[in-house]
Amino acid sequence: MLVEDGNHGEYRPLKNEFCEIGTAFIRAADLSDGKISFSSAEKINTDATLRIRKGVGKAGDVLISHKGTLGKIGFAREGSPPFVCSPQTTFWRVLNEQVIDRYYLFAYMRSPQFKRVFSVCGGETDMAPYVSLTSQRSIELRLPQIRIQRAIGEIVHSLDDKIELNRKTNETLEAMAKALFKSWFVDFDPVRAKAEGRSTGLPAEISDLFPDSFEDSELGEIPCGWQCCSFTKLVDVISGGTPKTSIDEYWNGSIPWFSVVDAPPGSSCWVIQTEKRITPEGLANCSSKLLPTGTTIISARGTVGKVCLAGRDMAMNQSCYGLRSKAENGEFFCFYLTKSLVEILEARAHGSVFSTITRDTLDGVATISPSLEAIQSFNRSSGALLGKIKTNLEENRILGNQRDALLPKLISGELRIPDAEKMLEEVGV
After folding, report:
1. All domains of the chain, ordered by start, with CATH?
2. What's the pLDDT score for residue 195?
3. Rounded distance between C-alpha atoms, residue 340 and residue 334, angstroms
4. How far are the Cα atoms of 36, 86, 120, 231 from residue 55, in angstroms, in the given order?
5. Residue 10 pLDDT
6. What Rg do the C-alpha atoms of the chain give, in angstroms?
7. What is the rounded distance in angstroms from the CA atom of residue 293 to the CA atom of residue 270?
8. Which residues of the chain have pLDDT under 70?
9. Which residue in 357, 275, 266 sits closest to 318, CA to CA?
10. What are the φ/ψ torsions at residue 298 (nearest 5 degrees)?
């Protein structure tokens, strides 16, 4: 087993060696739920990469954060791009697959048993929690026979694979919905095609919803008959609130309560669970309303511009706004319209301490107002895509819960391999 952290006692990349395209420099923030976010990780250039001799990762490595936020795990799958560990992360690399199975190692390091041992090893340096390389290398692993390791690794890996497949499917579905919005309401492709005498490529009943010419407006050329208006002419703005934290009866109830920490990553779109929940009494005694499923939520204070859809009825805190389309059956148009305006809203956010989007900010943004028929047609088309995304997210939540329930029992030997395999068959994995 090779356990090595990033740049340990070695060269560290300089500020001017970070770039847009290069080798991923993996920090603790890039590790989440067993995955490594290579796309959002900072990149370093070739010169910096060539100087680094420690912490150079490869496919099959298990990464763990050892400084600051302890114990975040990620697995470098086959086909992972080039990466190096930062001083916050360590890779654990299997050197002999006849002794340790890499998928078992990944599963074991996510188990409660390992997490407890890892946290006990933690000390502090410069006020930040820290697990030294020496302490990591001294951790003893529970290693059953290699055939048992492989069986456990395969069970957990099969669940991870299904979750990953759903995630990639969601990326594709969300990209399709986003591209459709851009084509219809940003680039005006159907109108442009008709104006130039070309086919729109759409079914006749949808093509007929779009004009065949443009007219001038304060936003430039827009489809003839469509309007320019304030964003708030198209959406109702709903405020949030927080029940008193000192009253226990307001918390740990059945109502999801959204804050910005619950915002899902990119293609997920939907919030299907929240870190905190409140009771009906808590809802009745705060300024938040119950947002219906499909409401767009935008973070408006501190971390501004996070946009998502309420995956079930929920409340939210006062650092967010709920946005509901004034057009009937226009909730997904509202969502993508909001996402298309985020850069403008972020640029206009202000505040002496925290950046803040106010109601005046929302009211001051001009946008287009398409025909009701075009909005509802988009809602039907994108709704099918977003509905499938939500279904996949719900399935991933169930699969993740099942994996997390099986894992400690498999590691401890409490659950036999055949019993675990039978449980997976029952859920179609």
Report:
1. 2-142 (3.90.220.20), 231-369 (3.90.220.20)
2. 97
3. 10
4. 15, 8, 24, 49
5. 62
6. 25
7. 10
8. 7-10, 124-127, 352-353
9. 357
10. -125, 130
